[in-house]
Amino acid sequence: MKKSNALLGLAGAIILISLIAWGYQVNNGLIVTNMRNPFSWGLYIATFAFFVGVAAGGLIVSSSVYLFNIEVLKPFTRIASLSAFASILGAGAMILPDMGRVERVWKVFLHPNFQSPLVWDVVVITAYLIITFLSVYVQLLPDWKKEGHGFLNGWTRKRSQEDINSFSKKWSKRVALVGLPVAILIHTVTALIFATQASRGWWNTAALPPDFVSVAVASGTALVLVISLLAVGKEQFEEYRGAFRTMALIVAGSLVIHFFFLSVDLIVHGWWGNSEAEEIHALIFGRYGFLYGLEILLPAFTMIFFFTEKGRSSFKALMIGSVLLFIGVFAHRMMLMFPAFNVIPLSLSLSGAGIESWAYPVALGQLREGLPVFVSSWDYSPTLVEYAVALLPFGQVLFVVTGAMKMYNFLPQKRIESPPTNEK
Amino acid sequence: MRLGMVIDLDRCIGCRSCAVACKSHNAQPPGTWWNRVFTPGSSFHQAAVGKDGGLQMEALPVSCQMCDNAPCQKVCPTGATYTDERGVVLIDYERCIGCRYCMAACPYGVRQFNWEDAKEVKARVGYEAGYEYGYPVDFRDKDGRLVFTPNRPAGVVEKCTFCAQYLAEGELPACIRGCPGKVRTFGDLDDPNSEVSKLIRKRQTVRLKEELGTSPKVYYIAPAKPIRLEVD
User: Fold this and answer.
1) Range of B118's domain?
2) Using the beta-carbon criterion (under 8 Å), do B56 and A352 form an inter-chain contact?
3) What is the pLDDT of residues A271-297, one digit of tens each?
4) Fewer CB atoms inside 10 A, N or C side of chain A?
5) Is the pLDDT of residue B231 over 60?
6) B97 with A105: Cβ contact below 8 A
7) Which of residues 207-246 of A touch B (CB under 8 A)?
8) CA of B120 to nearest chain A CA: how many angstroms apart?
9) Measured distance CA(A328)–CA(A321) in Å, rounded
10) Host domain of residue A234
């Protein structure tokens, strides 16, 4: 890629901005965010969930190719694994600035509470980081052997090229076998962090984990699609047309499943008509109607578009569909927070006074002129510092993907099963 | 031993003395209130609510409900939140990593985060310089866990401890002592002869959000006083 140096520079700048903002936040406390006691998770956790999803999708694609022998996608398994590795690295990093005491994070490993879904998530995400790394590693080994570079490959020197080729083939499949369930698990467990909480009606549904997985497959595949399109370029588009069509179909198909879960969940939330559900509906269709609209309409457009011949048969159409999907899925992640935190769990009904749901006010956590001391709702929107800090995983993914693709060959030249014969 | 509290809503006049005593004794930073008192139904404290001329006004104090099945403790990734041998849910300020999962999990809105350094913020909002309020020294439980410190470090979560520093001296929590209406009773729920156990047996009590299965150890005696206006 010719533009890779410029992209690496951009990624470096993004990471730098983010680290400076994070440093500012460490010095001043999380008060520099717009989160407060009643609304205690925001952009950081939403961004974390977004990247976990994208990461899960990547390995689901590359593992499926190995496990189910989907020939047409084989040239892109390396990119899919790399995309998964870069995204999970970003997700893992995003969680750190959200911690009030980030320097104590090691205590999670020293005193883990295995009842906590957060600890489960640490376990599966760490496992996934290792698996995605191994997935990329074993797939690149034959190239490294042939071209005499790479790392952690001293042991391959004494082996023959054929040995390494068959080793790579065998282990790519084995890693895929382990990787697929872990990929599904990382997003299942991330969803369980939310879904287990009976205090938050918006999260407390068994539909959340499968819905997260369906969104993960859609958005993760879309990222693999975008990276693959950029790697292939418009010139070679025709050559890989079949693969792109298949990826677009995977995106559209998993969005169908997503909309299925989304609608049954809305019905179950709404049908009984209790006051809490009515509050949630008032929030998603009223106060946060615009964001909810984005969450619904953009992925819906992509789904329909990718089902049409026009939507999946040109470079531009695939790019547009994927980018709109990313925006929609990001809105979806943000919408995890608004209806969850703006319905105060401690709500009381006073039948004698004809009041069905009265929210017991929560102490804001900040004393400042013009702000109430206790609130029953908090109009959260991220501060500039939060936006800057949340750039971190975006910079990381760009950096890792661009850097890796600049250094090594992630697009085998022949669409055949065996590793490529080098033509250089 | 399971320490618990009974709050008699018939007696509570909503004066918020308990909230103030709690705040001062426990050196809570500006904006943080472990103990709140509100008039349910009303957007203003001490304003009556009702319909058809039948007004009513109750006051409801809410602090940590000391759940037996505490979601905050279950979600805590490091075990910083724990239940001690007396059933008191506490936070180790030296182990809390500030992930705030417990705040999402708590159905009672009692958990509060130190969004900034307590000492700095006291100065910034104009609390008198050099005036230190509250229990003046650190308090550690018998295992050495830091469950009270006058100036909380930034980035940790805090909440009511049943005044752990006073319990250790055999004294009652500040809200109990500071209540002019003798609204609150404190004691061992496992001891059938304790005052709290007797009250729970004799009087009609409710617990907040009981349907969530959190099993709080704070009980409320439902108000039985007559509705004041035009009942007939």
Assistant:
1) 3-221
2) yes
3) 988 888 888 999 999 999 999 999 999
4) C
5) no
6) yes
7) none
8) 10
9) 11
10) 4-256+386-407
